[in-house]
Amino acid sequence: MDHLAMNAALAQYAGERVFLTGDTGFKGAWLAYWLTRLGAEVHGYALPPEHERGLYMRLGMGELISHTDGDVRDLDALTAALREAAPRVVFHLAAQALVKPSYEDPVGTYATNVMGSVHLLEAVRRVESVESVVFITSDKAYRNKEWAWGYRESDELGGHDPYSASKAAAEVVFASYRDAFFGGAAGRTVGMASVRAGNVVGGGDEAYARIVPDCIRALRAGQPLVLRRPEARRPWQHVLEPLGGYLLLGRRLLEDAGRFGGAWNFGPRPESVRTVLDVATRALAGWGEGESKVVVEPAEFHETTLLRLNADKAHQELGWSPRWGFEETLDRTVAWYRAEHEGDDLRAFTAEQIAAYMAAGEEGAR
Hints:
This protein has a domain at about 5-200 and about 235-270 and about 305-330: NAD(P)-binding Rossmann-like Domain (Rossmann fold), CATH 3.40.50.720. It has helices at about 5-10, 25-35, 55-60, 75-85, 100-105, 105-125, 160-180, 210-220, 240-255, 255-260, 275-285, 310-320, 325-340, 345-365, and strands at about 15-20, 40-45, 65-70, 90, 130-135, 190-195, 200, 225, 235, 235-240, 260-265, 275, 295. The longest helix is centred in the N-terminal third of the chain and has 21 residues, at about 105-125. By secondary structure, the protein is of the alpha/beta class. Helix 8 runs parallel beside helix 11 (about 275-285). It starts with a helix and ends with a helix. The strands form four sheets. It has a seven-stranded parallel beta sheet, with helices on both faces. Strands 7-10 form a two-stranded parallel ribbon.
């Protein structure tokens, strides 16, 4: 399948009822908005937005989708929201999504990322309308051995820090529910896939201890940018890249639960593996005015130096592949923040970026 076929598959979300946990977060808001652009009926469930300047608030997503304030740690409330939405497709993104806070609150991290996952899967078990579940974890679910090559879906799971360990545990929980309750012979057939990606960037991310929003805050305030591990190498990709894979997978699970179930990696091409300093330098240069110097401080906690994914399975079996390289990824990300800074219509600007991403795939397929 080429990019044209992928775009055609995504168009099939028109009129689809979709339930999305974590819609107020960075990736969740991008996914929710993309789904509305595709014509889906989106039902979100998440804690209230954490950042006033985040994508969810900047786009006024509360006007575009049906949203319920709720915590995935509350099984009854989550089940009630899922039952009321009666979706066919579920995307689970709700999580404590950062390494640093996991050191500060490991109990809360495990409660949200592990028991929250149990609750989501248990809610799906109770709501008969669901036929497709895309369960988002992280590249950090892999036990990182600082290999130079990318991790495959069959590699060992684990984690040094509470965040990584919680994501590995969530994968184990997911596999158990899939096999015990949704495998046809063991219960009703539901398409179930877990997806792993990491180091996504894009407009509207306001989280702390993430390199691009930290860059933007430094530029806004005219303050130095502080880096903990400038030499650390990561596989950087625009947020639309993995989300496109998630959307495609959600459709394919409806068609063939057995073939497309299981674990999937979504990562960029090898040339997009760059240092944190490379990202900071590109982002600072792309802002177009002012300047900010980089200050290096010692890391407060353990962080990996190298972690990347092997996405051959997604390329060969799903027909997904990255569309934007490193430079375009960073340039489009900074362009979004510039548009916000200049008071542009952010709904229109975000829609244009989604359209450009889709068009890039079509042009590459011709």
